Recover the amino acids of this structure.
């Protein structure tokens, strides 16, 4: 798929030459240990770098330059995976062959270099006014979570289930940590990103491999860096065998039911493929037990599904229901998992789920972003990624494997957010 | 089967009309392992007053029925259609918009089995009193979910402000009360009127052999009986040109206010290439006036009147059209004033020249070329364009011919104070402080 080379210690270049797309995609992933502080500093930093630079000192000038390059999109994403914080800078530009003007690709690469190495800063400090503005933007991004009740409820569930743990640290940090960012601290974060982060550079498109490799070497005149050994996360088990039930109230109509389960299985565990199938049968697809029973049979919900968070060994169920049906829905969801633990799993369910997993993986590879994200995740497993390899892992899974896997899924927390009137004055109760 | 070659973008598309009137388009994409197939009827939430097939009198059906019908297509006597798609590894879905109902799947295997499932489930209606009743709980929860989404309420509140009579103002999913009135008979009436193959379009894009696929669809269709196609009589009340309500506010449990300025379009009768040119010209004008490189955006962002949620958009269909500009903002008044000021400035003296046009033209051409990487975009947008007699692949040539005065003329459609409305969502006053 990708051809990878080490440019310097800790800096890897991965190129995939293909004529599948009309564009060339660049993705630069800077990875650092996750903390609320690092997440906050780095989110503001990414915003500041994409605001303007020495060559285009105002945002309109920078945006106009991108427009002139046939609407090349350049954006960033602040995310996390396990206990890593990742800043991704992405650019997508139309391949020169479809345009009347030439050399767009080279200009995009130059612009990337400007954004990363020629920021709007003097004397080792970013401009105060820009820092202040972008701090506000990141704070607004964090605050907007509250307006999306499904995302908010999911966030609350994880916060309650895994306090002070990478699982509950937001990719943008906290409002307090963002507020404490200064022009000076940001410069330190910038310096650290360039010189200490693990860096993976991805390029997908109809490009010349050797030419692109040479260009990237010049684009990134960076020294090698020694990376700290990737630490295994601690699972700070709350040592509590009972599951908790938390209810909260806001001014809203629908009840948001979110349930959290623990499992010892994570992405790197050999049984990960079994868990993918187990989650799929439980609630991952429209043929799954949750959809067929909670929605189609009992008409309790429009959306109801389960998901497996493989970085943290957590399984989540979420459903939008009428608040008066809370107990009935919880019971029905429990029943579906219980049925799986009792081996009530048909060959049809297994076949459907494997067919869907296969389709999902192959489909994801039909976009440049999908290729990059999948390769970036699977390369950590230390084995060459091939579609056939994953197909055969799923195909070897049988009913008993799934039943045993279901038994590892342990319910820990029910979180219910609703607008139920009679609870309005009780506040949070455990 | 007709072959259409678009040299500049290096794509070939195949088209054939079936004997029953169904238009089929196939666009093979090299390098792709998935195939995306849509089967769409030109029937959406606005088609609520019409003459049913084979009858003489106009009827008015309950709000939300097109969407309800979409849901009910998936349930058959022998079970749920999703089960079939899953068995062949296909992700299936459907959506209802103002003007279209689309059924779709994507798969990387068993293409013909999945295509057959799609064609057959959409062409074999099965509605009973009990299955219709059962669905009311599910759709009720869908409506409640949307009721809690501030951005959804903001969008529909703005549209509701703009329109006096046009059914674009009703919620696509209807209300709990309106869907309660829906019966199996209603569904059959709507189905028979709007799901005739001559009112539908199938689009296949991705990994596909065009000759084989066309033959396969033809074979499937030739085995089915349909009545002779007839022209559908849709009835719309006259709609005044100006907005119905100038301003409205809704309180919700949100962190900070959200505001949209809606600009109701005067020109909503165009179809075909004229519509394509007009629509692109309005979009380019909006990009110049409100895009990220505009003086307006710069001021609004640096002053803190807008944040990353800021957006602007233009929607145009036969019979209705509007631009929407807005953002989450702690200063909704300041933002609305700035938007209106920018509009007035443009109205007084058109400020954009050829170099401005060239910049946004390049941006838009780049956007189209990038979008051609997405099979979902191609299928959905091609269908929308075709239902308005436009061709998606004409967009780049039309953009290349666009002039500054084209932009100026088109922008007039959304200019004038009588076209402007404001909708604001405010945090509830009594809500607990986080």
């Amino acid at each position: 798929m990708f051809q990878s080379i080490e440019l310097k210690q800790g800096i890897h270049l991965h190129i995939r030459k293909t004529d599948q797309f009309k564009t060339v995609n660049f993705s630069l992933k800077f990875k650092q240990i996750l903390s609320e502080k690092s997440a906050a500093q780095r989110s503001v930093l990414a915003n500041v770098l994409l605001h303007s630079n020495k060559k285009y000192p105002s945002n309109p000038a920078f945006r106009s330059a991108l427009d002139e390059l046939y609407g090349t999109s350049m954006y960033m994403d602040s995310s996390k995976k396990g206990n890593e914080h990742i800043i991704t800078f992405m650019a997508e530009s139309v391949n020169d062959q479809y345009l009347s003007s030439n050399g767009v690709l080279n200009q995009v690469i130059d612009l990337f270099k400007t954004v990363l190495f020629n920021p709007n800063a003097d004397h080792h400090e970013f401009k105060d006014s820009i820092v202040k503005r972008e701090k506000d933007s990141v704070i607004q991004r964090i605050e907007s979570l509250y307006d999306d009740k499904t995302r908010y409820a999911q966030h609350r569930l994880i916060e309650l289930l895994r306090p002070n743990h990478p699982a509950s640290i937001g990719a943008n940090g906290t409002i307090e940590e963002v507020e404490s960012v200064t022009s000076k601290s940001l410069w330190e974060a910038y310096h650290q990103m360039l010189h200490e982060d693990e860096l993976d550079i991805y390029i997908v498109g109809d490009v010349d491999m050797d030419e692109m490799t040479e260009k990237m070497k010049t684009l990134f005149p960076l020294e090698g860096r020694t990376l700290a050994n990737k630490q295994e996360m601690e699972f700070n088990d709350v040592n509590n065998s009972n599951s908790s039930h938390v209810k909260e109230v806001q001014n809203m109509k629908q009840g948001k039911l979110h349930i959290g389960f623990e499992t010892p299985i994570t992405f790197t565990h050999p049984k990960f493929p079994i868990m993918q199938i187990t989650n799929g049968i439980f609630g991952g697809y429209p043929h799954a037990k949750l959809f067929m029973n909670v929605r189609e049979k009992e008409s309790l919900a429009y959306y109801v599904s389960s998901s497996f968070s493989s970085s943290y060994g957590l399984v989540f169920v979420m459903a939008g229901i009428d608040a008066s049906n809370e107990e009935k829905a919880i019971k029905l969801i429990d029943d579906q998992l219980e049925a799986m633990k009792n081996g009530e799993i048909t060959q049809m369910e297994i076949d459907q789920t494997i067919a869907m997993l296969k389709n999902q993986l192959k489909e994801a590879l039909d976009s440049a972003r999908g290729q990059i994200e999948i390769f970036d995740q699977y390369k950590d497993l230390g084995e060459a990624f091939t579609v056939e390899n994953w197909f055969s892992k799923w195909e070897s899974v049988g009913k008993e494997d799934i039943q045993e896997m279901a038994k590892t899924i342990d319910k820990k927390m029910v979180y219910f957010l609703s607008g139920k009137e009679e609870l309005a004055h009780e506040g949070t109760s455990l | 089967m007709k072959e259409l070659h678009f040299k500049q973008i290096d794509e070939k598309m195949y088209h054939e009309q079936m004997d029953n009137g169904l238009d089929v388009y196939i666009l093979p994409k090299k390098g792709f392992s998935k195939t995306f197939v849509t089967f769409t009827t030109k029937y959406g939430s606005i088609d609520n007053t019409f003459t049913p097939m084979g009858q003489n009198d106009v009827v008015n059906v309950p709000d939300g029925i097109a969407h309800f019908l979409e849901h009910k297509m998936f349930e058959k006597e022998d079970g749920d259609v999703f089960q079939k798609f899953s068995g062949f590894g296909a992700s299936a879905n459907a959506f209802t918009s103002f003007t279209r109902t689309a059924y779709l799947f994507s798969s990387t295997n068993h293409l013909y089995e999945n295509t057959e499932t799609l064609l057959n489930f959409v062409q074999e209606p099965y509605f009973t009193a009990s299955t219709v009743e059962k669905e009311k709980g599910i759709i009720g929860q869908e409506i409640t979910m949307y009721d809690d989404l501030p951005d959804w309420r903001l969008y529909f509140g703005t549209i509701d402000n703009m329109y006096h009579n046009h059914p674009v103002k009703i919620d696509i999913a209807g209300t709990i009360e309106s869907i309660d009135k829906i019966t199996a008979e209603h569904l059959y009436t709507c189905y028979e009127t709007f799901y005739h193959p001559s009112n539908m379009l199938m689009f296949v894009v991705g990994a596909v052999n065009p000759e084989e696929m066309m033959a396969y669809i033809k074979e499937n269709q030739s085995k089915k009986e349909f009545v002779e196609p007839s022209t559908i009589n849709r009835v719309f009340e006259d709609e005044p040109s100006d907005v119905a309500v100038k301003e409205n506010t809704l309180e919700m449990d949100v962190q900070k206010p959200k505001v949209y300025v809606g600009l109701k379009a005067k020109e909503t009768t165009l179809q075909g290439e004229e519509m394509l040119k007009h629509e692109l010209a309005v979009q380019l004008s909006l990009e110049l006036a409100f895009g990220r490189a505009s003086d307006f955006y710069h001021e609004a962002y640096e002053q803190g009147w807008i944040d990353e949620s800021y957006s602007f958009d233009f929607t145009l269909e036969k019979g209705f059209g509007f631009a929407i500009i807005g953002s989450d903002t702690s200063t909704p008044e300041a933002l609305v004033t700035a938007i209106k000021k920018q509009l007035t400035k443009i109205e007084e003296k058109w400020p954009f020249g050829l170099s401005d046009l060239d910049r946004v033209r390049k941006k838009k051409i780049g956007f189209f070329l990038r979008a051609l990487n997405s099979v979902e975009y191609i299928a959905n947008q091609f269908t929308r364009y075709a239902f308005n007699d436009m061709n998606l692949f004409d967009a780049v040539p039309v953009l290349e011919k666009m002039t500054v005065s084209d932009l100026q003329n088109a922008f007039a459609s959304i200019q004038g104070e009588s076209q402007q409305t404001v909708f604001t969502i405010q945090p509830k006053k009594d809500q607990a402080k986080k």
Notes: Chain A touches chain B through 70 residues (CB under 8 Å).
